[in-house]
Amino acid sequence: MRARVRSGTLLTVLIVAIISFAAGTRSDVIFAKVGSLLGLKVDASTLDLSSVQETYRALKANYDGDIDIESLIHGASRGMVDAVGDAHTVYLDPAGVKELEDSLSGNIGGGIGVEIGLRNDRATIIRPLKDSPALAAGVQAGDVVIGVNGEDSSSWSVDQVVAKIRGEVGTKVNLVLLRNNDKIDVSITRAEVSSPTVEAEIVDGVGILTVSRFNGETAVLARAEAEKFLAAGVDRVILDLRGNPGGEVSAAQGLAGLWLDGQTVLTQRRGGEIIRTDKSIGEPILGSTKTVVLINGGSASASEIVAGALRDHGKATLVGEKSYGKGSVQAVIRLSGGSELKVTESRWFTPNGKNIDGKGIEPDVKVELTGDDLNNGVDPQLDKAKTL
User: What is the DSSP code (8-state) at residue 129?
Assistant: First the structure.
């Protein structure tokens, strides 16, 4: 889940800081004073970077080759943030910023068309997308990605694997997949890949609403589909949040607002103290409609917010597998030069006061979905949801 600090605000602060520095005043002090007036969390402390300068001078004087200064600067910033030890607090260079924005919008760019999640602590193919290059190449649900372009990826995070798989449209990516203890080499040509934010269908009188991410259009699209459900006389709804990695909290509030009437969706706490309570947004047109929510290990962040809120308020039954377990809130702060800092600023709790960070949400009805199920075109989780 993420919040965003406006770039215009930060740009103003940076300009003031630069001018003040030129005038002989410490820029970090000015940044802190001006930033606090604008509502930003700032700190006037500084770091002794003399050892970094010493390393740079030694590197520049002795390295046999060209040095990209911009890459060094980004690398230093990234290393400092990584040293915090929080997987969700990250430094994004301009390329990383674009990748994040593209993933939230659904415009994935050059990719192979797969949903990847963490299974048994390994990056695993959850499912290849319909008509995707991955599907055409024979990639199957349950395949473990252990190699990308000649590098051993067996210990990589999902984000690292995804970043390496993406690239220019028309170029190839070589994967090593582990399937039933057999290693399989696959070469796939990247293509322009996009996936819809919201999809809906009515099957045997049941409205199935599939939400793949939470962005600025999620709530609007979902509400439009919900209105179609009601117009068609649907009296049961399945909300499919499987494989949804999350996104913007406002989108979660809007989606939850289809069932909840201005009720608490989550509380944010910092150091144990409640700093914010977020409520549902919109008219609860599905509030009296029997609802089942599908979750799995790929359901994270905003997906868990919605699932937890609907269950806590007695509006839905959860079916599937334990969710990912991301119970923290990230602020996205725009930095100079087009970079961004995504930093964990608080922890979120369900309406009943439960934090699921690192633990996930256990479904009310546990049903496993195996790779063989997907490859054979069967979905026992969805089938079970239809019976409830």
Answer: P
Q: Which helix (H) or strand (E) holds 177?
A: strand 172-179
- Digit-coded pLDDT (tens) for 306-362: 999 999 999 999 999 999 899 998 888 888 888 999 899 999 999 999 999 999 999
Is residue 2's pLDDT more than 80?
Answer: no
Q: Please spell the DSSP secondary structure of 138-171, one letter per residue.
A: T--TT-EEEEETTEE-TT--HHHHHHHH---TT-
CA distance 177 to 134: 12
The set of catalytic residues is: 301, 312, 326
Domains in the chain, start-ordered, CATH in brackets?
2-101 (no CATH), 108-194 (2.30.42.10), 198-387 (3.90.226.10)
Evaluated on CA atoms 315, 287, 3, 222, the torsion sign reads: positive
Q: Find where tokens 């079970």 sit.
A: 384
Q: What DSSP string runs through 239-252?
A: EE-TT---BBHHHH
Strands (E), 28-121: 90-92, 107-111, 114-119
Q: Which amino acid is at 185?
A: D
Which residues, at least 6 apart from 7, have a Cβ–Cβ distance to it below 8 Å? 334
The model's pLDDT over 225-234, given as tens digits with 9 standing for 90+, comes to 999 999 999 9
Residue 267 host element (H or E): strand 264-270
